[in-house]
Amino acid sequence: MLILEGCSYRYAGAARPSLRDVSLTLRDGEVLGVVGKSEAGKSTLCLVASGLAPRTLGGTLSGRVLIDGADTAGRAMHEMATEVAIGFQNPGTQLSGVATTVYEEVAFGPMNLGISREEVLRRTEASIDALAIRALTQRDPQRISGGQQQLVAIAGLLALAPRHLILDEPTAQLDPAGTRLVSDAIERLAAAGASILVVEQKVDLLAGICHRVLAVDEGRVTLEGAAAAVLGDPTLHALGVAEPSTVRLRRLGSEAGLSGQAIEGALALATSQSSRVNDA
Amino acid sequence: MLGGIIGPVGLVLLAVVLPALAAGVLRGLVRTSLLLTLPIAISALLVNLFFFPGGQQVLLRLGPITATAEGLEFALEILVRIMAISGAITLFYLTTRPQDLVVDLERRGVSARVAFVANASVQTVPAMVERAQQIAAAQRARGLDTEGSFLRRVRGIVPIVGPVILGSIGEVEERTLALEARGFTRPGSRTLLWWPPDSSSQRIARWGLILALVAIIGARVAGRLG
Q: What global pTM score does this model have?
């Protein structure tokens, strides 16, 4: 369990804090979505929860970050890395830059942890299978597409076998098939007991995998609750967040005077069609 | 004695040419090491041939300057030394993958950070070249002239080099964050997945070379070679 208690964070040299009095609880086995417009403080929230802010970034943090009830203040970043893994949206800069093959890139994290060679190999193999990148394993990670790099970067995070995983726009460069691989991996990891925080612009993805969602605006949490409730909240639009397509269809349907039954029927049809397309 | 030309020539044959032949890289070795050393070799030859201080035996007079036999002898001595050095370095690069070297150094206890810097520098070069090509294409698409006269080309370099360097610096922070988050700064040794095989004959050859070096230095100091 990862808990933020009244956290405020100001980047070094910044006039104002980018995160203000944020408290959240990320339970074991839970997927928590974060939405908000650009510069709302979503990425800062990720950096604080992962421990990178202020350990690596500098700046000032007030409030507490607790892992399984213990305050993390004073823990070194490499100790945090065994508890919390974090992935950023730009896949190019997340690659180690020293691996000559995708296989070594995925293995880079567990190699750093000093665990046995067999365990490194086991985790690497499992992560490669989880994101269906077996065909890429012998390729140069610098010479694959952005979407492929994103899958490789996420596989590298899974190989750390983190109990807490933070993903900042993990599907930004992915096509629908890649997005689905990532969402499946997130759901599997959560089912195995890990807690996961996902920042995403793709609200449909969040609607599908999140237990709870919180909305961030100007560094504060403005909405928090069950995924369906938050993503269906009419004030979300004002925060610069798009409605999930199901919410939008229901709204447009009722505005056009359709009966609730007709709308739900159309939605059920659309869902079955789109899942058939995805499976194909 | 063995100083002068014969020593270095023998060394080049034994330690550079023979191993290069055995590894099948002699042609590449000659080409690369010539490319590397030609400018310095030509200048060393000219300077020593014509301006060797205290040269008596005149070979050729060209107006105010004279080529002397002593100068020629000294120039040849310098040339074979340059050959020995550049040949050895080129042989090393042609037969050793940087990745193998770095992994082996790390296995022998060199810090993971040092190994990382060595490895990343090598890996970064192709990535930088690619980035430069992308930026050049983008700048051309916006009307930058990178062809035509020499002066125009030079002027065209600035808008390409700037973004390449600034972009790389900008990425440093993100890379640092990603590395830290993947436990790279953990003290202690990393788990290595593989390392180059090290046969007993290679070990014997290495120790033999070290002993030979010690012996040569010893002999030199004792004045037997000089």
A: 0.79
